[in-house]
Amino acid sequence: MPTRSEVLDAAIAVLAQHEPLTLDAVARETGLTKPGVVHHVGTKQKLLVAVVDRIVDLWEADLQERLEQENADLEDPADRLRAYVSHALRGEFAHSDLALIADAQLRNMLCEQWSRRLDPWFGFELEGSPRRRAALRAARLLADGAWFNASLDIPTVRDDEREELFALAMELVDEGARE
Predict the structure, then answer these.
(1) Sign of torsion, CA 149 152 155 157?
(2) Which one, of 54, 86, 57, lies nearest residue 70 by Cα?
(3) What pTM value is reported for the model?
(4) Which range, of 19-28, 42-51, 99-108, 118-127, averages the lowest pLDDT?
(5) 152 Cβ neighbours under 8 A, 6+ residues apart
(6) C-alpha–C-alpha distance, residues 123 and 87, integer Å
(7) Percent of the residues in the chain that have a pLDDT greater than 70, as a whole number
(8) Residue 10 near residue 26, CB atoms below 8 Å
(9) Distance set, CA 114 to CA 91, 97, 101 (Å)
(10) Cα–Cα distance between 130 and 1 in angstroms, integer?
(11) For 31, left (φ over 0), alpha (ψ -120 to 50), or beta?
(12) CA–CA distances in Å: residue 162 to residues 79, 98, 126
């Protein structure tokens, strides 16, 4: 019998295959019955909340690893933003990364959940001049667009541009961190 984590990973796989996330689809993916899936996750709403949390857990693990690889400081908001920019511009994404918008009726709640968990990585608490904050926001928006398009399989960056784009985004973070 699959564990709850395995059921959530199966739900993520359903989304990655561009299928609607339903209890039946997760049951097919796991080999469980629908009541078996309900036993692990409850309602469809609870499934979506748990899937968003699972995706954020995976993102945070990657972000933390990027911080450690750079010997960066978890307490430094600019370092956390650098980790996010690196994650968004160098990471691999699937349609499942957009789980927070998978259900129109739950979108507001899921977006709030996503923001509550990931806002610390986006540099919101950085203060300073409007120019400083704008440089940091520009880096964040660049990163957001990169992961969003990658999650939708929309090609927006040529391979020979990827590292230059990353360098530009990091220059924006550095500009905002310096001021």
Answers:
(1) positive
(2) 86
(3) 0.90
(4) 118-127
(5) 95, 98
(6) 15
(7) 99
(8) yes
(9) 18, 11, 10
(10) 54
(11) left
(12) 21, 22, 27
